[in-house]
Write a structure and sequence with these properties.
Blueprint: H1 7-24, H2 29-32, H3 34-45, H4 49-53, H5 55-58, H6 61-74, H7 79-96, H8 104-117, H9 123-131, H10 138-166, H11 169-182, H12 184-190, H13 213-217, H14 220-249, H15 254-279, H16 284-298, H17 310-338, H18 343-372, H19 376-394
Helix pairs in contact: 1-9, 1-10, 1-12, 3-10, 3-14, 6-8, 6-18, 7-8, 7-9, 7-11, 9-10, 10-11, 10-15, 10-17, 14-15, 14-17, 14-18, 14-19, 15-16, 15-17, 16-17, 16-19, 17-18
Amino acid sequence: MDSGWGEFKQGWKVIVAASAGVGVGMIGAPIMTLGVFFLPLEKTFGWTRGQVSLASLCMVVGAIVTAPFLGRICDRIAPRKIGIVSLIMLGIGLLLMTQINGNIMTFYGGLVLLSLLGSGTTPTVWTRGVSTWFDKKRGTALGITLAGTGIASTFLPPFIGSLIAENDWRAGYVGLAVIAFAAIIPVALFFHDRAAPATVAGAAPIAKLGMSTKEAMGTRQFWQLAIGNCLVTAGTASMINHMVPLLRGANIDLPTALGTAAIMGFSIILGRLFMGILVDKFHAPYVAALFIIGPAAGVLMLMGTLEAGLQIKVAAILIGLTAGSEVQVLAFLVGRFFGLKNYGEIYGWQFIFFELAVGLGPLAVGRSFDATGNYDSSMIGLSIIFVLGAALVGTLGRPPQFAPVAQPAE
C-alpha cells in the first residue's frame, strides 16, 4: 500500500520555495516582526500603544480586498508568476516604509500600501501550488511549507531588533526588504503547479475535483471553519504582536523578551510540522481542537507580576504551537472539505476572516492596554476565545469524498 511518502520525491523543491515565499510574505516577516517596531516607534514619535497597534489592521487591508480575486486567478494561471511579482512589490513597499514621519497617518498609509503590494505573498498562492503535488501527505507538505512563518518568527525578531538597536527603526525595514528580494531566487527556480496529478488512471486530475465556491459557502462547515479560525487567529496574532511589549512592561529585559519571542517562533515551526503529520493520520478537526485549547491556559500564565523563567517560556510554547497550526490546518481543511477545483477562491474567502482577525485582535488588545494600563483583561478575553475556537473547529465533522471523474478517451 502506497504510504504517500513518494510524493516528496518530486515535490520537495516546491515546498522549499513555497516555504521561503510564505516566510517573508505578508503573514511572515512583516507581521512576525511588527512587535519589535512598537517601542522604537512609540519612543521616536510619541505614539501610544493603541495607535501603533492599529498597524496590524492596516497590514491586512490588501489581503482582505484582494483575497477572493487573487484566489480565482491562482485557480486559472500559474501562482509562480504571482509570487515573484508580489515579492518584488513587497520589497519595494518595505523600503518605502523608511519614509514615514511623525504624522501617524503616513505610518497607516504606508502599511496599507505595503499590504496591497504584497497581497500575492499570502498562503493563498503558496498552498495552492503545493497542494497540487500532494494528496496522501498533503498535511505534512503544507506543515513544512507554512513552517516558513515559524522560521521567520524565530530568527527575524532578534535580527531585526538588533538592526534597530544598532541603527534605528528604518534599518529594520531595510533589512526586511533585502530578505524579501532574496526569496525571489528559490521561488523563481523551483515553485510551480503540478501540471496534471491524476488520482487514478483515466480519472480527473486531483486539482479538478471539488465544490464550486457557491456550493462551499452553502455548507455549515464553511462558516464554522471561518468563524472558528477567526477567533483563534485573533488570539495568536495578538500575542505575536504584543508578547515583547507585554514582557517589557513587566520589567523583563529586552534580550529575554526577544528570546521569548524566538521561543514562540520555534514553537510555530513545531506546530506546523506536528499538525501536518497528525492530520494525515487522525481526524483533522479533533487534532486542531487539541492544539487550539493549549493557549487558553498559556495566556492566563502571562497575567499579573511576571519573572523571567519557565512560566513565560511555557506560555510562549503553548501559544506558538497553536499559531503554527492555524494557517496550516485552514489550508488542509479547505482542501479536504471543499476540494481543489476552486481551492484558491474558497481559501481566499476564508482568508478574509483570517486577515480580519490578524488586524482586529492586536488592535483590540492595544486599545485595552491604553484603557487599563495592563494586559490582564485582554488575557482573560483571549482565553475565552481560544476555548470557543476549539469547539467550533473540533465539531466540523467528516469531510466529503470527491469521486474521480472519468475523462474522455483520446
